[in-house]
User: Fold PIN domain-like protein from Ostreococcus tauri.
Amino acid sequence: MGVRGLWTLLEPAGRRADARALRGRRVAVDASIWLHQFIHATTDDDAAAAPARGFFRRIARLLHHGITPVFVFDGAAPGLKRRT
Assistant:
C-alpha cells in the first residue's frame, strides 16, 4: 500500500504549520489513514462507532480553525499494481 519512498522524496518540501497559518485554506486529508488510525487504536466497547466519532472530532477541529478539509479516498488499484 502506498508509494515506496514517497515520504523521503517529499520530506524536504514539508514543514509544520500552526492551525492559524492554515485558516481560510483547504487541506487535503488522506481519509484511509484516518480510518486506519481510528479502527486500530480504539479501546471503546462501541468500536464500530469509533471511526465515525474520530472523523467528526477531527473535522470539527479543522472547521473550528477555519480550515476546510478535502478528503481523498483510495480508489481501486491500477492494473499494473494489482499484478504485484
